[in-house]
Every structure is written in structure tokens, then in C-alpha cells.
Amino acid sequence: MRPGSPVPVVIRTISERVQADAATMSRLRMAGVAPGARVTVETGSGVVTLIGPDGVRSDLSAGTAEAVHVQVL
Q1: Which ranges carry the Diphteria toxin repressor/Iron-dependent repressor IdeR SH3 domain (predicted)?
Q2: What is the pTM of this model?
């Protein structure tokens, strides 16, 4: 992915490491990010933004984002 370019994806899985982090999971749920959801991904300098179906954004560190597995559409 090129930094800053929005990319449509489907969330496939969220690792147990991320699932164990209640604060992160709460932010992802608020954005509508869950397995099977179609979202948009934007990457920046060390930050990955997931934009849910309703436009709600959730910023993740690059390390945390690596544990959210997606399929590019």
C-alpha cells in the first residue's frame, strides 16, 4: 500500500493479541471494524487508519495493524 492512498479491504481476522486489548477492541467496534466488515485502510507515518462503513476512523500503530488481517478488494 502506498502511504496516504485509501485501499478498500475486508477484515478477515483480528489476532488474539489485539482482542486481549479492551481499549483497542472498543475503538475498532465503534468504527465498525470486525471480521467480515468492508472498510478502508489509509497508511501514514507509523499509523494505519481503518475507516469503517459509517466513516468512523480508528487509528492503530503499524505494529497493532499487522495483527488485523485483511483481504484487499
Answers
A1: 4-71
A2: 0.89
